[in-house]
Design brief:
By secondary structure, the protein is α/β, with parallel strands linked by helices. It has helices at 2-8, 28-35, 37-41, 46-54, 58-62, 65-89, 96-103, 106-138, 146-162, 165-191, 218-228, 237-240, 249-278, 288-297, 301-316, 319-334, 352-369, 373-376, 382-402, 407-432, 438-465, 490-502, 516-532, 549-562, 589-600; strands spanning 479-484, 505-512, 537-542, 567-576, 604-611. It is found in: Membrane.
């Protein structure tokens, strides 16, 4: 009975759960790999930037390396705490743009957005050139090809990101783990040494330490602090890309932000402690990180592992921009400050147009700079400080507005962060102005103006379309369908069948040119048409010039003038080849007619595809 009963039951299919897109989004770990490479890689040049500034005060100045780094670490803690709150308050992403839009007004939000866009684009160019510079330092024979190497790395990163942010995160987990692990091992081993294991890396290189300097002024310390703050670039990337995380997105993004701050802080402080411990001095041609690796681990395989890991992560740190900028562009397009195409997503949750736009502008910067890092570095980090300052200021107003437990302390913390990052923005801009930073000072307001122009254009379009207003009810109008034809084929039959289904009246139009060959072809078509007798009038449109689109457009325009109450539709029949390469065999007559009719008339254009399967 049981078996019979079972057989009698209808078969049921097990439905797969709907694809919510979660598998194409980030976890806390993959988010850390995808969006923190910029910040992680900054330990390769952040401490060095501090040391190079303090070197102007000689060995006495280098003694302030750790205090300056601790101040930067303190600012890092403020920023991480702030952006953790930004993530919770603005889960749609956008970072400083979203904060400013809510609390500081539209114009300030556009300044924040422009600063982020510039910083993200420059980060790609600087990261790629820095990574390739590390490669050419190891292999000098490649120096002449550095531009092509930069473009190749950019193409690689772009291709990975077009497959989805999760795929890019998975691809970059291993390099991130190797780099972070190498730096932590370097720090731990170095802390147990009383003296450098090796100084071979710096041997034979000239020191850049100033002689006979015994005082350190406040301006020098401020400049060292501002230069070292380049290590903070990328801290905001996770807050900008919250929608890229799996649910619960807020919690996962906050965990990634805290992990980023903890790792970055430990590495910065640890490296600065070793700089002071080993009495390290900056030299020409050798990075501070390379000297630390040499002193801590020795000039062995471990030294080269760290150098290779640094080179790889510097090049791949451009991925932070590919994770954060497309989301920002989506928000700007949603608010009508950029073309709406930036809001579209591909199947893998990729803002493909944002990725390609970032790659295109970055490639132009690489060509402009010739693949040289020093050309781009003066432009870098100004935008991120502007964004930091705006975000911190906006969060002060956020706490005043929303209140909550201990809101005054939180507002005070954000206010301190706004003051510090604001001062850093001014100092960095002033000190790097003549080295090329003036370009950013000019580009930032121009970008804001571009946003405003796009917004104004969308406003006019919305007014014309009546967006936000209830339109008139639809009504029927007499319709006339015009079908351009040049010969009698099955394509012509399919086009007229579609036309009589669409309109009250159908007219076939053929363009006749004055030469004898064309007149003969037109006469033959008219004879065949009369024999075929499809019940549709064939209209001859003469043209003195060897053009196709303009005569059809002129005919349609005359129809609109003689009968203004009729709705004219131009149905253009076209062949859809079975293979992509066969498109080269087409004459593109349909595209020519469509362009002329769209440009010169208000007629509806319908392009009929006849598939050659």
């Amino acid at each position: 009975m049981s078996a019979l009963t079972t057989e009698a039951l209808p078969a049921t299919s097990v439905e797969e759960p709907p694809d919510t897109g979660a598998r194409h989004k980030l976890t806390a770990v993959t988010g850390l790999a995808a969006l923190s490479l910029d910040a992680m890689a900054s330990v390769a040049y952040g401490p060095e930037a501090i040391v190079l500034v303090l070197a102007a005060a000689g060995g006495y100045g280098l003694g302030f390396t750790l205090p300056v780094t601790l101040a930067i670490a303190g600012l890092l803690a403020v920023l991480v705490a702030s952006y953790r709150q930004v993530i919770a308050a603005f889960p749609d992403g956008g970072g400083s743009y979203a904060v400013a839009k809510t609390h500081l007004g539209r114009r300030t939000s556009l300044v924040a957005a422009a600063s982020l866009v510039l910083d993200y684009v420059l980060n790609v160019a600087v990261a790629v050139t820095a990574g390739v510079a590390a490669l050419t330092s190891a292999f000098p024979g490649l120096y002449g090809d550095r531009l092509w190497l930069c473009l190749a790395v950019l193409v690689l990163i772009t291709g990975v990101n077009l497959r989805g942010i999760v795929d890019s995160a998975k691809a970059f987990i291993a390099p991130t783990v190797v780099f972070v692990g190498s730096i932590l091992v370097l720090i731990v081993v170095g802390l147990f040494r009383d003296a450098p294991a090796s100084t071979e890396a710096a041997a034979g290189h000239a020191s850049v330490l100033a002689d006979n300097a015994t005082t350190v002024g406040a301006l020098l310390l401020l400049k060292a602090f501002a230069s070292g703050c380049s290590a903070l670039t990328g801290v905001e990337a996770i807050a900008n890309a919250v929608p890229s995380f799996r649910a619960p997105a807020i919690r996962r993004a906050q965990h990634a932000e805290i992990a980023l701050g903890a790792l970055l802080g430990v590495m910065l402080i640890g490296l600065s402690v070793l700089i002071s411990r080993f009495g390290l001095q900056p030299v020409e041609g050798v990075t501070v990180l390379a000297q630390l690796a040499d002193a801590s681990i020795g000039h062995n395989i471990g030294f080269y592992v760290i150098q290779f890991a640094t080179m790889t992560l510097l090049a791949l740190s451009a991925n932070t921009s590919f994770g954060g900028l497309p989301v920002l562009l989506k928000l700007l397009s949603r608010d009508n400050y950029l073309p709406h195409v930036f809001g579209l997503k591909a199947d893998r949750q990729v803002h493909r147009h944002g990725v390609l736009a970032l790659a295109g502008v970055s490639a132009a910067l690489l060509v402009f700079s010739g693949g040289d890092t020093n050309t781009l570095v003066p432009l870098f980090a100004i935008g991120v400080f502007v964004g930091f300052t705006i975000a911190q200021t906006g969060m002060v107003l956020h706490w005043r507005k929303t209140g909550g437990p201990r809101w005054a302390g939180k507002a005070l913390l954000n206010g301190l962060g706004a003051l510090l990052t604001g001062v850093s923005a001014v100092v960095v801009t002033a000190t790097k102005f003549h080295d090329g930073a003036w370009l950013i000072v000019v580009a930032l307001p121009l970008l804001v103006v571009a946003f405003e122009l796009v917004h104004r254009a969308y406003g006019k379009i919305g007014e014309r379309l009546g967006v936000g207003r209830i339109p008139e009810p639809p009504h029927r109008e007499r319709s006339l369908v015009v079908v351009p034809v040049s010969s009698l084929t099955r394509l012509t039959s399919e086009a007229l069948t579609a036309a009589v289904s669409l309109g009250d009246e159908v007219r076939a139009v053929t363009v006749c040119h004055p030469d004898a060959e064309d007149r003969a072809a037109t006469a033959a078509l008219e004879r065949d048409w009369a024999l075929w007798s499809p019940g549709v009038e064939l209209v001859r449109v003469p043209s003195e010039r060897r053009t196709l689109g303009r005569p059809v457009a002129d005919y349609v325009r005359k129809l609109a003038v003689t009968d203004p109450g009729v709705q004219v539709t131009v149905l253009i029949p076209e062949v859809e080849p079975a293979h992509l390469w066969q498109r080269m065999l087409q004459n593109q007559r349909g595209a020519v007619v469509a362009h002329a009719v769209r440009r010169d008339t208000n007629a509806v254009i319908c392009r009929l595809r006849f598939r050659l399967d």
